[in-house]
Automatic annotation (TrEMBL), chains A, B, C, D, E:
Keywords: Cell membrane, Ion transport, Magnesium, Membrane, Transmembrane, Transmembrane helix, Transport
Species: Cuspidothrix issatschenkoi CHARLIE-1
Protein name: Magnesium transport protein CorA
Higher taxonomy: Bacteria, Bacillati, Cyanobacteriota, Cyanophyceae, Nostocales
CDD domains in alphabetical order: TmCorA-like_1
Highest taxon listed in the record's lineage: Bacteria
NCBIfam families: corA
Gene: corA
Amino acid sequence: MVKKNRKFTKLMKKSGVKEHFHQPGTIPGTIIVDENSKPPSIFLIDYNQTDLIHKQISYPEECINYLDTNSVSWVDVQGLGNQDILQRLGQSFDLHPLILEDIVNMVERPKIEDYEDQLVIIAHMVVPNNNNGSFYGEQVSLVLGKYYVLTVQEEPEHDCFDGVRNRIDKSKGIIRCQGSDYLAYALLDAIIDGFFPVLELYGERIDDLEEEVIINPSQKTLQKIYQIRRELLQLRRGIWPQRDAINSLIRDGSELISPDVRIYLRDCYDHTVQLIDILETYRELVAGLMDVYLSAVSNKMNEIMKLLTVVSSIFIPLTFIAGVYGMNFNTEKSPHNMPELNWYWGYPLCLALMLLVATILLYSFWRRGWLSNSANLPREFHR
Amino acid sequence: MVKKNRKFTKLMKKSGVKEHFHQPGTIPGTIIVDENSKPPSIFLIDYNQTDLIHKQISYPEECINYLDTNSVSWVDVQGLGNQDILQRLGQSFDLHPLILEDIVNMVERPKIEDYEDQLVIIAHMVVPNNNNGSFYGEQVSLVLGKYYVLTVQEEPEHDCFDGVRNRIDKSKGIIRCQGSDYLAYALLDAIIDGFFPVLELYGERIDDLEEEVIINPSQKTLQKIYQIRRELLQLRRGIWPQRDAINSLIRDGSELISPDVRIYLRDCYDHTVQLIDILETYRELVAGLMDVYLSAVSNKMNEIMKLLTVVSSIFIPLTFIAGVYGMNFNTEKSPHNMPELNWYWGYPLCLALMLLVATILLYSFWRRGWLSNSANLPREFHR
Amino acid sequence: MVKKNRKFTKLMKKSGVKEHFHQPGTIPGTIIVDENSKPPSIFLIDYNQTDLIHKQISYPEECINYLDTNSVSWVDVQGLGNQDILQRLGQSFDLHPLILEDIVNMVERPKIEDYEDQLVIIAHMVVPNNNNGSFYGEQVSLVLGKYYVLTVQEEPEHDCFDGVRNRIDKSKGIIRCQGSDYLAYALLDAIIDGFFPVLELYGERIDDLEEEVIINPSQKTLQKIYQIRRELLQLRRGIWPQRDAINSLIRDGSELISPDVRIYLRDCYDHTVQLIDILETYRELVAGLMDVYLSAVSNKMNEIMKLLTVVSSIFIPLTFIAGVYGMNFNTEKSPHNMPELNWYWGYPLCLALMLLVATILLYSFWRRGWLSNSANLPREFHR
Amino acid sequence: MVKKNRKFTKLMKKSGVKEHFHQPGTIPGTIIVDENSKPPSIFLIDYNQTDLIHKQISYPEECINYLDTNSVSWVDVQGLGNQDILQRLGQSFDLHPLILEDIVNMVERPKIEDYEDQLVIIAHMVVPNNNNGSFYGEQVSLVLGKYYVLTVQEEPEHDCFDGVRNRIDKSKGIIRCQGSDYLAYALLDAIIDGFFPVLELYGERIDDLEEEVIINPSQKTLQKIYQIRRELLQLRRGIWPQRDAINSLIRDGSELISPDVRIYLRDCYDHTVQLIDILETYRELVAGLMDVYLSAVSNKMNEIMKLLTVVSSIFIPLTFIAGVYGMNFNTEKSPHNMPELNWYWGYPLCLALMLLVATILLYSFWRRGWLSNSANLPREFHR
Amino acid sequence: MVKKNRKFTKLMKKSGVKEHFHQPGTIPGTIIVDENSKPPSIFLIDYNQTDLIHKQISYPEECINYLDTNSVSWVDVQGLGNQDILQRLGQSFDLHPLILEDIVNMVERPKIEDYEDQLVIIAHMVVPNNNNGSFYGEQVSLVLGKYYVLTVQEEPEHDCFDGVRNRIDKSKGIIRCQGSDYLAYALLDAIIDGFFPVLELYGERIDDLEEEVIINPSQKTLQKIYQIRRELLQLRRGIWPQRDAINSLIRDGSELISPDVRIYLRDCYDHTVQLIDILETYRELVAGLMDVYLSAVSNKMNEIMKLLTVVSSIFIPLTFIAGVYGMNFNTEKSPHNMPELNWYWGYPLCLALMLLVATILLYSFWRRGWLSNSANLPREFHR
């Protein structure tokens, strides 16, 4: 009867367990290629202070020539849909089988692995999805060597590296004068900074929800709150380990990273901490929103019940009075049998009695403040 | 009156306190055999790079010949239903009485014990139960010696070691070239990886519940949420200490584990951390679901109350009007006594008045939005 | 109007603050004897590998002869109702005044105190109370000397030491071959293991509550949940510090404890950690039960409201119709005044109209599913 | 319209922020005298093993003679209402301006400051207020010198030091044979022990609330729960830092404190930990009470709704039947128009029908158990 | 339909993410000038023990002369609206590009950065907003050099430094005799102390809410609670890292800070801890308020339902009785047909019956206590 909520499922696939995990007992280092993934395209940017080469490469082995030269080589692999090419890529860069597994099987938490002459950084990259206020997330792996940086991403459609490409192309800032460690920093910084616009979207969604939840709480609102809560949990799982990874990058003192770049990494670390601060604040706000929602629903119920009570309490006694004078006691058998029916002013007096009762009841409700704000609260709210 | 909920009870037995604990004051090292447990079957796999022996063994003492040879021996004991055999097993492998107690009495939390020439790993193994989305759990004990690995499991019906057996048989990967420490790692890795499909089942159950809770929350939903919460707690008690155990395995530097295997264990540790990440996320999601459930039930109540209020508020005043003209004031005694009854258009005017009142009330309810979504929300929900 | 809930009060006295605390500013080391406490009985068990003496002692000073002999002496004091005897006991064992205060004033948290030639362990002992699923709790103090163990307990009626006494009497296990440190371990282990049957009782109570809360939640259920929560809090206050105490016992390396016994203590520590695991799981389950209770009560309210709404919504419109035709408009004055009253088929048509309205309403309620499960849910629940 | 709740405000003033804080940017070390504070009275007790001097002092400078003598001098200042005297006190005792500020401006959290020849302890002292089950709280500052202890308290009316004064006067215990460090310990111990009777009061209030919340939850109950929660928060802010302060007193090893006294301080530390245990237990209990309250209110609503539903469901159908036979269809126009009205047994049959309907409905309600416990639950509750 | 809630949005801008964050991939050290910011005004105060210069400076380069002289120079920059001036300021003070970015881009969390000859402190400054009980927040950056302090703030309208300016002008306290480190401390202390009046405002708002929530909970109350919760979250994000920053300032031992000033910083640190204590207490109180609100709303619903139930339960049976005697059974056809109608005392007896029923019902409601406190609770509440 009920269609699957696609967005939920999609998210879980992106960030986690489904499909990518390998069967228990498979050989460690096994590469599993996702059938839906695009075939890898390999882009090379090789630069030093004066020269710059831009090139798309067909075979992974082409890279080898560039790796040991003095210039900085950035090899960017986009798409993971071909097992053979990935294997050869691993050989070209001389990667440990476990690293290659981590890079290809996109289920890893962010982490840092230090293999003497290579530093592997597994990170999460997010790009805001302005259509629904959510985000696209994917794993990015950075391998830092002495003269090269290898980046591997699954989705060729969007990344956060355009700013860095631009700086290299236009020779802006100091990037062209620095080594591969600075490039790795610049890419990592771009990844971290990429979380800010995503969080900004969530900030706006929470702002909108805050009003909706107080003014017009509905089933949909509830769903939205839960949805945000869930997505923030996803983000959190991406950011927290990133912080630890960067921190150990700063402290562990790999020789591949120069002290100058280490200062920049500290700045990068500060940004991650700030991200976490904002994220946790948002999580607390959303948790608070759920409480507010529950209260607002109860409030609404109060308004409904008030209305029911006011209407019932006024008309039920009146109906009773009408019922009394609708009785058929025989007035002719006895002077005590409903003499009011034969009074000259009987009916007007009866109506007057009803009016009196209604007035008294209305007045008592008014004193309790049940009449004033029962209906038009939402409109009064706009301050 | 009410039958016991078997599943709950079963789970608790599996993972914990009941039955297996010994009476206070019994001698430490006492082995208590569960009467329902199957008698132990002992399987031996002895291999090196070239040779491979598969064998079922009848008497524990038969193992002794294989333990000190240069080849790797994997002794797999399935079933715990015979105290005598277990005692002799302990003697054959020269196990400390406390270790034997830990292995047999299946109530231990995962842990690692380092006895100079033996490393004992107590772990929890889970196998997904596709019938109800839950899992079968049992304790597995690994004893790692210089040339052998002893594994003891209670339930012979299912384990996660088929992949490993397969790799040994078909000589896939590097397992045949490595020592007993690599075998122990491979088994431990299979145990850890065995949690992923179980968690995946829970991910699906949570997905299903998310829809159920918003669209059609019922008593059963509540029960399911609580059930998942409870089972995740069980899983958690299995995974968390496993992480600590593997961590201390990596750091404490027993001589039985070579540096190469230590790198693989780090990968295994990463998987455990990832499991915990997912598990904790699920736990938060389920906690959130409970809030959503409560809100959804309140919402439903609001809908019910709205309907009651709309119906009552419209018909109670109308009934009052009808009641008034059902009064029996004597129109002949006075011209003031209900002259309306004798009007030419009396009845049509009265009906018109009722219609007017009903229209005004309906309009005011419509303006408040009480009429639109009161009934068909569940059907509108399918996006 | 309301009688005091005795059980609550009793519990608090047992585990805590009331009565036993001394007035601010009293001299440290002051002994306060609880008037209701029984007078102390002193039991001596003196044993070595070959000999065994069982004896009840009248004067504390009698112990002194046994303390320095080579055999292990276990002096067990039961009851705290005589200040003079306690003072003399302190002198006989040469206890620091602060220790004696700790032992007698039963308000201490579990802890370990290391006085060069004596090791004082303050622990909590619990015994399951099968009448109400709760437990009796009391403080036990162990003083470990080179050749003796002194235990002091308040309540002579029950303790967990029978197993240990049995092992000494029957010379089971290795206890008769070991020193006083092993005896202290055996007693401590019996105390720790004594928590398992208590927790088992709570496991059963929680199982029962789980069904009650979903099938038939009532005021009493609420009270039971709160009661369990409270008692688990009590248990927790007893267990947590016990863990720390045992841990520091293992690590701090007093000379009174031999390395062999230290291994056994590690086992004891593992049991404590396991206890805490189970306890915290139970606490989470009970916290979850409270949420479930709240939801179940809301659900029940929904059922009640549904019934009210169905009944009201069907009969109020019908009563309105009846009311209309109960009006007294004069049909003779005008052909427009209630001509239906004079129709040949007037009454049957009116009844048919009522039937139609009722059918339509019932059908619409049926479509919403309000009729099916409103009443008999509890009976359907038994799976 | 609503008067300020004085108690709340009073509490906040006592324990915290209001009034005492100085303007941002004022000179550090500034003394602000609270106008409502009483003028300081200075009491001196000077004692050694044999002699004892009790004296009220007019000018702070009089103390100086006693400070350097071999006997222990306890200078107790009560009241803070005179800036000049306080300044001179500071000079007499040679206090650092920041210490004097801490002592006078009663807003500090408990802490310990070590100035080579002086040890400053800022503590919170509470005295139970038996009128309302709350407490009076104030700051006490202890300055420990080689031969003297200076204590400063705001409120002369009550403190917890009477026991200590008594022990000095009557030469009870070992206090007269010990130095100033023991005196400081004795005072600190009295302060800590002073929390127990306060917590005991809260234990009783929680006991009372437990019954009230289940048997008769009202608006007032809610207020009381919140009030206790708030006051426990206050207490907590006083106790927690006290623990840290005492701990650092034990560990940091100031030369002013002898090893013997350090053992006593360990006892004092244990008491603080125990206080925190009890306090946190109470906080959990109160948090649980809030949940229970919410559930109990929902339960009560259920009872109310049940009554409404029973009454409505029984009488609305009956009224409908009465309404039908109150219709005025003309029986003379047609034999089908309400022939029942002219039946010989019409009225009795109609009443019998009503009785039948009512009985069926009552029976169905009885089967659901709605009739039994709806009203008299509170009275049944007394077990 | 609904206007944006400005205050929320404003707050978020002030304290966080929006607008100021730079695009992912921009060059580190980029300065982004907020268009709405005011152009910078630069104020110089140069002083030593004897001399004092007050001066407004037009060009940043003018400062340079003062920086290396022996006197202390305080350069206070207010407003950030001119990129060129800020760049030149950075050059004049020889600031690292990353520092300048931190100072100008007002999104940083409080932190401390130690560059050998400069110490950079990023702090949050708040000023109470007495109009709405909230606060103005902005970032303040302090750069401490050997002979100078540079402060940069965005908003020229208000800061907390007037007290410090005053002390310098009037030569109050020891500030004129101390170096630049004391000035930095004094400014930091003023910033920290500036949080107290803000928290005091929140204390008052919480006091007010406590009454509102119990006496008259409405939709607005809910909004206020959420608003306070949100603002306290903001404050928290400002204070917590400030504590860490000051702590590392004390411990890390930069040479720019003398031991004397370090003692003062410890005082400053104590104040921060105290702020956090108060803040966390407030956060707990507000969380408690939300629970109280939910309970109070439920309570109110109970009152409403009670009224409805009382009115309905009394009048529905009465109306039924009236309905019975309004039936038209033909009394002439049979003596059994409603003989009551023809009784002599029929009508009075009927009224008496009604009165009896009403009395019984009222009495039973009164016994349940439903009549007493249903309406006038709010007025009774004023104690």
